Amino acid sequence: MNRQSTSLALRIVGVAAFAVVAWRKTVTSDEPWWPSWLGALAVIGAIVLGVWWWTRRDDGTRRAAVAARPGWTTRAVWADATLGDSLRTLGATPGKVRGGTRMTLAWSATELQLWRGQTVVLTLPWEQVWTITRTVGQAASTGNPAVELVTRESARFVVVPARRPDGGMLPATGAQVDALVGTLREARQGSGTSVPPAR
Length: 199
Hints:
By secondary structure, the protein is of the alpha+beta class. The protein folds into two domains: 3-61; 71-190, Roll (PH-domain like). Helix content is 42%, strand content 29%. Strand 2 and strand 3 form a beta hairpin. 27% of the residues are buried. Residues 1-6 have low confidence and may be disordered. Keywords: Membrane, Transmembrane, Transmembrane helix. The chain crosses the membrane at residues 34-54.
């Protein structure tokens, strides 16, 4: 489990424990029940608001990056737990990339890129991308349908697409990932790159 998901899980557990304590105090005390419950609701509201704000901020940064690069097709993704090491193997210097880091997969007629915010972390010409398949990615504590790309040098990297192309909090379904794999293969084929048979 990455630090982001661990932090979220701990906050959820904390809110649940707070709610249980407030409920027990309500049923075992002669004091008014509403102060405890108002406190619990305030904490829950603050967490929901914080997650919403964080998501909107990241999605806004991604949209700015897309607007600055017209002509590219993009998909919001999360990093698989192995992505940081894979990027370094490919010669990229992405900084610290944990599983669950928000990124953008982008492609044009000639190449594929991975963006972190508005920074291009990796660029691969289509002729360097050998296979594009569906796999399972560990972007948080559980596996989700993911896209695996393998280069001609056998370097492998995995990203977990978001359900909505422009971001959000839910991972893509298996059918959506299959469709994305098909789209990426078509883009690679359209570039005139000689590719191996799909597996």
